[in-house]
Every structure is written in C-alpha cells, then in structure tokens.
Specification:
Length: 387
C-alpha cells in the first residue's frame, strides 16, 4: 500500500470527568451496552470508568447503590407475582388456539396488564391488537384512523411529547410511513396530544461591570459553511428544590450541536471555562474559531479571556442588552426548558444534572430534529456531511 493510500488512525476521543460521571449514571439505569450505543462509546470504556469510580466511593455511596438495586429487584418480583396470579386462571387455555387466548385477555384486561397476560400465554401483543381490531369490524376509514393514531401517538411519545405535527410528519416519513401534515395534525387533535409549550419567564438582568469586552464579529449571522467556524455560548438558570443550577453551553452553529457544557451550583468564570474546555477537547482544539457570547462578567473574566488567547480563539460579544445577537444560544435554552424541564416537579440538583445530561447527550444532539439541519438531528447532519 502506498503512503498516499494509508489511512490515518482515528484520534481517540477525550471526555471530561463531568461527562464520565453522567455517562456512568446513564449506564446504571439502562445498562452498559445500551449506554455505550447511546453515547457512541466502547463498553470497555464504561467498565474502566466504573472500576476507577468504585475505588473512590465511600461506604455510604455503596449503600445507596444497594438500595437502588433492591428497588429494581422488587419491581421484578412484582412482575413475577402478577404472572403467578395469571397462571391459575389461564392454565386451561395455555395449549388452546390463539383466538381463545385473546378472549381470555379481553375478559381479564381490567385485572391484569396486557403485556403480562401476553407473556404468560405466549402470544404476541401485536397479534392481540390485530385480533381486537378485526373483532370490532371497523370500517376502512376507521381502520385508517386507528392505524394513523397509533403511529402518531407512538412517534409523539417516543419524542417525549416534544414534537408537533411538522416534526412528527418528518419522523414518520423517515420510518416509511407517509402521512401529510394535515392528517398528522388531525390525529394529534383527535387524541388530545399537544407538544410541551413554553411558559412565562422573567429574564435576569446582568450587573454592570467595567471589564474588557470584544467586538461583535457575528452581527447576527448565524450561518456556517463548515464545523468550528462559529461557536456561541451562554449561561442559563435552572430551578431545583435546592436552589439554582447554572448551565453553560457551547454550540457549533454549523450543526447546532451542543459540543461543550458544564453545570454548577455557582455561576463563576470556571463554569464557562469548563464548558469551553469540553468543546475544545471534543473538537481537537481548532484554531481561529469565533467564540461568541454575551457581555456577562464570566465571559469578560481574565480566566476566560486567557483561555481564548491560549487556544487562538477569536472572542466576540453581543451588543449591550441585545439578546438577539445571541439568539441561537437563547433558542437552545428555550427548547431545553420547554421540552425537558417545564412541567416537571422540582428535584435535587443531582437529579436535574442527570436530566439535563440525558437531554443534551442522548436526545438533543443525537435524535432531536432541527430545522437548521434540514430536519436532521445535529449528529445525523454531521455524519451525513462529514462522510
């Protein structure tokens, strides 16, 4: 093989301690293999990180883990108890035709879950629902609406109630199901399904300061023809039952991906520096990137500006009091709060950190469709355009 044909080895991804901690929490909930797929990691990485973390854990933390494991086992035991309660009543039809089993399920659906009865009687839930539709003798129009409602409802809940008719139409089209937007909108209305909506928010004013600021290099031009040309940054406040949790993010305007983030109970210069450091790690420390932010004291601090200089980044700041100059970052925070936070009860800072981590890394970057990406998610857009 000639030198020109040699394929260079793909550089190893770097992950901050904060990313590793949240990744391990995800692995505890859904399993190492599933978490590795969600985050595009090797399973061996998660096992290595978990081994190192376990060496540092205190006995009280291990007790908490045992309590969580006990809760999981109790849930499994409850499922087994339900199956054991079904068996005496359904023993006589275990070897009967599926139609007789479907009659049993219909008769006892108020007493037991459909899932448990199908599992015990060894029939597919899809078969039960198909039999039920045939039994009801729906007209072709009713059958179409039933199928449409099922597909729309499934897509709506898979998107965690975040999509309206346009994005659900795109989602179904990608799955090979072609309904027009009016049909999807009518189905949503018929089922009473509404995407999560915004609520009123009282903006927080910034304290005046005499720290140095940068000129506005973006001038509200939020387009980019390639990665690592323009990054935008901002901080938001998230309410918890323990007080505020502050979130700083870095967004690449090319794909709208959140490439850096950090969370803390204090709004300091370190918060924005940690978010920028994560972006630099992920993007292999590119040079000459326009790093845009507002004029908050954290972005005007000596530590932040020294970090820009160290990595040859071009500082840029919004005009005083003009939120439109940083509209993309503001838009992301709006989306985060509407789709992930609003409507949820107040929880601890740690639980909120986990919720925000899951939204950014597992939902927004990987799956959430973005109009600026042609209806693709940021990760899909990058994979398609960097292939």
């Amino acid at each position: 093989m000639t030198k020109s044909a040699t394929v260079s080895k793909k550089p190893r991804k770097q992950h901050s301690p904060e990313f590793r901690s949240e990744a391990l929490k995800l692995a505890e909930r859904i399993g190492v293999a599933a978490a590795a797929r969600e985050l595009s990691l090797y399973e061996s990485q998660l096992y290595t990180w978990r081994s190192k973390l376990q060496q540092q854990k205190t006995s009280s933390e291990r007790e908490n883990e045992l309590a969580a494991e006990n809760a999981r086992l109790k849930r499994q035991l409850a499922e087994r108890d339900e199956e054991l309660a079904i068996l005496p009543k359904g023993r006589d039809i275990l070897r009967k035709a599926p139609e007789m089993k479907y009659v049993f399920i219909e008769k006892h659906q108020a007493e037991f879950s459909i899932k448990a009865m199908c599992r015990v009687l060894r029939v597919a839930r899809s078969g039960w629902y198909a039999w039920r539709i045939r039994r009801l003798q729906l007209s072709p129009r009713q059958q179409f609406r039933r199928q449409c409602d099922k597909a729309v409802s499934q897509a709506f809940h898979q998107a965690k109630q975040r999509y309206g008719a346009p994005r659900i139409t795109d989602e179904l089209r990608e799955q090979g199901v072609k309904y027009n937007i009016k049909t999807v909108a009518a189905s949503l209305k018929r089922q009473g399904l509404r995407a999560k909506a915004a609520r009123k928010f009282s903006p927080v004013s910034y304290k005046p300061h005499n720290l140095p600021v940068f000129d506005n290099l973006l001038n509200q031009d939020f387009t980019a023809s390639a990665p690592n040309q323009k990054w935008v940054q901002d901080i938001t406040y998230i309410r918890t039952d323990e007080g505020w949790l502050y979130l700083a993010v870095v967004i690449d305007l090319w794909s709208r991906a959140v490439i850096g983030w950090s969370m803390s109970s204090r709004m300091t210069a370190r918060l924005v520096c940690d978010a920028l450091q994560m972006a630099l790690w992920r993007r292999k420390r590119p040079k000459g990137v326009i790093a845009h932010s507002d004029r908050g004291g954290q972005y005007c601090s000596a530590d932040y500006q020294a970090l820009l200089k160290q990595h040859d980044l071009r500082g840029s700041m919004s005009a005083k009091g003009c939120c439109y100059d940083n509209a993309c970052a503001e838009s992301f925070f709006h989306t985060l709060k509407v789709e992930c936070i609003h409507g949820e009860r107040l929880i601890s800072r740690d639980d909120m950190r986990t919720m925000v981590f899951n939204y950014i890394e597992c939902d927004y970057n990987r799956w959430r469709r973005h109009s600026a990406c042609g209806g693709l998610s940021p990760e899909q857009f990058e994979n398609q355009n960097l292939a």
